[in-house]
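Q: Got one fold?
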Amino acid sequence: MNYSHPLELGTMGARPEDFSGQPTLVAIGNFDGVHLGHQAVLVDTAAEAKSNGWIPVALTFEPHPTVAVGRPPPACLTPVQRKIELIQRIDPSLRVVVQTFDEPFATQSPEAFVRTMLVDRLCARGVRVGENFRFGARRSGDLDSLADFGKQFGFEARAVPLLGDHQGRFSSTRARHAVAIGDLDEVWAILSRPHALSGKVVQGQRRARSLGFPTANLRWVQEALPPHGVYAVVVDRLDEHGAAQRLGAGVCNIGIRPTVDAGFAVEVHLFDFDGDLYGLRLRAHLIHSLRSEKKFNNLDDLKLQIELDVQEARKRLASFLPSVWEGQAWF
């Protein structure tokens, strides 16, 4: 995503003006990945807000706060539009407010954040944060100061501990690490779904087509990448609004394609598909890792391996069914 022009508050997600003056319960976080810990917090936020007659709000930020202080952001698990979609699946009553995290926002005092964002714009009656929550210039605000501001401005602030399992707490950092080492089962256990890569289909060099396996080349993939290799995937097609519909299953190659020295690409071959995908946006859900990237001696050896990859992926995905509650999308 190009951050040269700041995102205007409310251009994605809900606009605070749309529920101005109505009391809210606000859960604050980056919510990258919308993992099981996030989901539990947001379920509780929606339920508590409903019981009090308040509007439940998830306040998140774009870009990642590290960008405002000149550091590169961590690898992305869910682009902002996908994040909004996943949060609203938890409970349709949740309003997702996306706040631009630019330099002016990052350098405001803790009190200015509370006064302008939580009180004036969101009319917060309750605020839910993580146990290590920091806010304001130089991260100078903490849970204690938030609670003090709550007493001053009329809201209750509380830290919500994140869920976990025998491996530790569910966290975006843990999920990113699992993606980076290619542990797809661990990713699924943290997110409650497989990690996915999304991008726009662009014209490629047609080398795979010449081998009998046409691929959709995905450009502008924002999500964290697993190790280079070949993966069994299920694929959704995204419309102009980001709504997803199941397209099919296939294999995805991620890497530099060393046999033909073609450079880096994320390319998907769909089983039993004959159609034009150029210009469309696809989301490939990584279900199984088939093998690591390898350089072959010649194109015949490469073609033989692709045939084996396709056979293995078909076998692994033969009994794979979409999640019923996802509607027309795989996940």
The mean pLDDT is 89. The chain has two domains: 16-165, 195-326. The chain is about 30% helix and 25% strand.
